Input
Amino acid sequence: MSFYRNTVWFIKGLQEYTKSGYEAAERRFSAADLEASVSGRSFIITGANSGIGKAVACEIAKRGGTVHLVCRNKDRAEEARNEIVEHSKNENVHVHIVDMSSPKKVWEFANEFSHNKSLHVLINNAGCMVNQRELTEDDLEKNFATNTLGTYILTTALIPTLKKSQNPRVITVSSGGMLVQKLNVEDLQFEKGSFDGTMAYAQNKRQQVIMTEQWAAQHKEIHFSSMHPGWADTPAVRSSMPDFYAKMKNKLRTEAQGADTVVWLAVSDAASRQPSGLFFQDRKAVSTHLPLAFSRSSPSEEEKLMSTLEELAVKFKC
Output
């Protein structure tokens, strides 16, 4: 089944996830959707010092939003902030240094932010793909700690703050790679069998999609969405998937093309009229499963994912 999923997914990717796929989809976009001022609205973007996160931050800053960059590396974050301010002419761009793989640090940031700041839109963009199984100082597998648990803690901790705002939204940058994975709640930290960083990442991205669906059902006041940016030419792709990059570099999307749907979900009225909890690709809600792939999970498996994450989150709560 994994061979079938991988083959169907790659053919789909060549048609849809590449630069030419974006250009084909772009023909149906409404330019007016992004002609929006978001002055007075506050945005958190994780992993915002490069790639898609930085491109999203720049587009939001251009439209007048107050942007909070959540990054791990202070020097790169400050450099990104300076570039965003220069391009957008918007000084309301702020840097917060947080390691998303550290649950305690994520809790600390979320609690501190909630005490004295408002938030309208949370964009979970930070991602990690390490190709050897690696544990954090908290004995958590690093991909899972960053992509899944970090996203879970930051989002749930900020939900009360989001609910105080008008038209609040949460956007999680997932990946079409999740289509090759069925949720596996019995081995969330990849302790069994041989470790494959690409498949671990895809499993985390499946978990993010399910988390989004669960949050949408639980918190009707907030508009939740997840999305696939396509195959984009970013520093993360170059460093984490060098073989894929070498083969596909002439077909990859630009960072701006990868960021487009995130910006659309974050600022447009059209996006907020879509049902909450959906998975988007090129400004359009798409299926979260390949045909005949048997990748659907049961309600009990999805409930177990959420309860396990909650147990872990509480364990590290400040």
Notes: The first helix runs from residue 2 to 16. The chain has a mean pLDDT of 96. The two ends are 43 Å apart (CA to CA).
